[in-house]
Amino acid sequence: MTEPVTKPSTVDIDWKTMEDWDRRYYIHNIYAQDEYNPIFISKTEGRHIYLQDGTKVLDFMSQLISDNMGQRHPKVISGIKDALDRYGHVYFAFSTDYRARASKLLVEDIIQDDWAGRVRFLSTGTEGVEMALLMAKLYTGRPYIITQEYAFHGWTTGAGGGCTRIRGYSNNLASPTDPNSFQEVPGFPTPGYYVAPAPYCYRCPVGHTYPDCKSKEPVGSLPCLRPLEHLIEVIGAENIAAVITEIMFGGAGIYSPPEYIPQLREITRKHGILWIDDEVITGFGRLGKWFGYQLYKDTYPDIMVIGKGLTSCALPSGGVVVNKEIGEFFDQQRWWSGSSHEGHPITLAAIVATLEAMIEEDIVSVAAETGKYLETQLRQLEPRHKSIGQIAGAGMFWVIDLVKNQERREPFVKEDRNSMRAGDLSHWPINIVMGKCLEKGVFLTGFTPNTLKIGPALTSTREEIDQGLEALDYALDTVDEMCD
Ligand SMILES: Cc1ncc(COP(=O)(O)O)c(C=O)c1O
To answer: CATH fold of 74-360, please?
Structure first.
């Protein structure tokens, strides 16, 4: 007979042995073995993570700007438990009530806008991107994809090696001791991808100043979109399957000006190219709307990639939503594709429970309201800290570019988003802020050297927002001391 499963108390865990095993056998990311200093999380609950000694830490980034409904939402836990009573694994040739319910919930109840036709659920956001690229190529019969500099779309060959263009975050190696020693993955970037400039107005890649740049261009176009149009002319629209973008760049922390996405959408429409909208980080309420594209009037994607917030990362999940025409195209074919894990009933149960909880709690409106409060409080820090270069974002996802000199907009780490992450990184502003915030019981950092990511759970209370910002305020005092 199987023994009943007992919940292990964290007190009984031999952390010393765990550390030994973790150090000895795991392939670690981010850190070289010699510098690896494991931080064990003993449990997670709501908006908090708990360290092995029991210290309670407010997670002001909801892990990877991903756990939108917080950790261990009771409805999600109970949905997963119910599914475990009925299901182990069912592969994609079969269906389940959970798959049907999740599809209907997403396409009909949540998206509502008339563009969406069908959804396919996968295991990660990266796989969602791969699937979107594949579908775009099969549907159009064209080989090329245009991505943006500083984009992050995942880690695989297409999503990562082709579309991801944030230097130092493409599966490369970097020496922990020699700042000039790093190795890109041989063969990367994957051929077949072209790169357009990012809409990074704070340091404009095409040398303009927003919003003055609008008046200098023909009505209806931003200068940073000219190179995109030029690329399309040079490669030939008939060879380009899709342009892939993020509404708010997850890795690089860039928030485009309001005209950018609608104008880009118009360019893709004009040239008959698909627009893939990667909403892995921005979807499910993060920007104060169900999806980021809803920030713009009459602007709809052809293919939308989803992930993270789909289950608030309670279980690994991702997927694609396609428009009706693309859905109909694939309806007419036998499509020989599939993964052992896609449409897993337990994951689908987590998706159903998460989406139902989001609807019941009207969490998107809550996020929009809390987001306004977060922005107001955040902007109050601006005049108090000379290291704040710019604050940008929407809803519950904000970034701060930290600078050595406000007037010159000079970053502390000069390579900024192009850093290869080699050598000593302890002087990086995001690492200094992380250490200081942890002193105050708050987790907050970033992915690129000078750019902080603020992305608390959408369920955060105002007190928690205040606590997170107080810690940030305290941390920025130290960064200010490093300014000119
Ligand atoms: C915009 C974007 N696309 C794709 C991905 C990859 O998703 P995943 O980590 O689930 O593979 C991420 C992850 O952070 C992301 O931010």
So the answer is: Aspartate Aminotransferase; domain 2 (3.40.640)
286 and 293 in contact (C-beta within 8 Å)?
no
Distance 151 CA to ligand 1 centre (A): 10
- Residue 406 structure tokens: 């406000």
* pLDDT at residue number 341: 96
Contacts of 252 (CB under 8 A, 6+ apart): 150, 151, 152, 166, 198, 200, 417, 447, 448, 451
Lowest-pLDDT range of 148-152, 158-162, 479-483:
158-162
Determine the pLDDT at residue 11: 78
Encoding tokens for residue 316?
A: 């690994």
Q: Is 250 near ligand 1, meaning CB less than 6 Å away?
A: yes
Nearest CA owner, ligand 1 atom 10 = 125
From atom 9 of ligand 1, which residue's Cα is the shortest distance away?
125
The pairing of strands 182-183 and 116-122 is: unpaired
For the 14-72+363-480 domain, the top CATH level (class) is: alpha beta
The 8-class DSSP code of residue 5 comes to P
Q: Domain coordinates of the chain in residue numbers? A: 14-72+363-480, 74-360
Contacts of residue 234, defined as CB under 8 A and 6 or more positions apart, other chains included, come to none
163 burial class (0-12, 13-18, 19+ CB within 10 angstroms)? buried
Please determine, for residue 3, whether its predicted confidence score (pLDDT) is greater than 70.
Answer: no
Residues 439 and 433: their CA atoms lie apart, in Å, by 10
The pTM assigned to this predicted structure is: 0.96
Rounded to an integer, the average pLDDT of 402-413 is 98
Find the farthest-apart pair of alpha carbons in the chain and give their distance in angstroms, rounded: 77
Which residue's CA is the closest to the ligand 1 atom numbered 4? 153
Residues 6+ apart with CB under 8 A from 474: 436, 437, 439, 440
- Residue type at 346 in one-letter notation: I
**Three-class SS state of 415:** coil
Pairing of strands 144-148, 182-183: unpaired
- Rounded to an integer, the average pLDDT of 248-255 is 96
Position in ligand 1 atom list of the atom nearest CA 65: 14
Mean confidence (pLDDT) of the chain: 95
pLDDT band at 167 (very low <50, low <70, confident <90, very high): confident
- Would you state the pLDDT for residue 2? 43
